Amino acid sequence: MDDISDTARDAAQAARSPEDLEAIIEERTRALTEALEQKTALLHEVDHRVKNNLQLISSLLLLQNRRVTDPALKASLRGMLGRVNAIATVHRRLFQSEDVERFDVSAFIRDMVADLMGSAQRDDIRVELDLERVEIPAAKAAPFALVINELLTNALGHGFPEGRGGRIFVGVRRQEGEFRIEIADDGVGLDKDARPSGFGLTIVQLLCQQLKAKSETTDADPGTRIVVLLPVNGAH
Amino acid sequence: MAGRTLEVLIVEDEMLLAIELEHLVEEVGCHPLGLAMSSDEAVAMAESLHPDLALVDVHLSDGPTGVEVARKISSDCGGVALFMTANVKRLPDDFAGACGVIGKPYSEHGVKTALSYLTYCLTEGHVPGPVPMGLTLAPAYAELWGLDDVLPKIA
Asked: Does residue B86 contact residue B105 with C-beta atoms inside 8 Å?
């Protein structure tokens, strides 16, 4: 950019007539437009690569999942696939919107719920959504998405063992200086035997710490209610 | 037409994506005809195998040639193309004659739902309902398959 303005300044000083000046402005505009076009093309290229690589990672996990027979290993691979999908959903959403700096939490949750419920194929579980439109910085989108993915997956998998139907509620609203995200189910509840996987829980704890968010799990009687409080401006 | 098995050509230069896609095509009850990695391969296979549906990535091994592949398949080979690309915004307004697009990164469930939906559209000639998440129909096909008729129901 310095080169362009220096050149323009030198040229402007040397200019003698309005025609010269006009030509200089034209030339400068052309150079700036070109630079902007290059930058935009580069951004598209990077976006394209990120998306393709995410697709590659999930294809790898899916392919390996087809090969293994051990149920525990299959469950691990499925778990990782879900996490990669959550991040993939973030990237699809981010570049769909005009603003790449802000991330629409409710739109993301709608996508996630549709995908998780669709692939779970559990017609006996009803989902209720009460989503206010709230936005978080794009930089926080991936860790946030991973937290939501764990909580939804847990509600689905552990709250409702095969044959036990019910309801999952997901609510998002702004409450004073916080975003309140509630995920409640009327499933089997916090039973000792149905405790969520250790790794999933660790992810939630670590990422909530990173996001300066608080997460509270309570007995919803029947079922489980988890509330995540995320500070609107970075900290509590 | 009910119960017809759709013949599907996969045009994708990333081998792992192509192979996994082939599995998904089979799982929804379609018949995969094969894989093409370049535009020449894709057009040659489409001309000899006459796929009902071709899943076409924009970036192939010989460059961003997928758009022309889609145009050729829909105009010369009597097949229907569906784009699968990370660059949805860069597709031409007329979708180069393709019926729509699935944006990358797609999910397993997203692709299966979209393929089942398109199987219905292609065999019955109209949409079974609102377009599933992850799939976007080209304006010409949305009109052809009467998407507007089902929209008021969800509004």
From this structure: yes
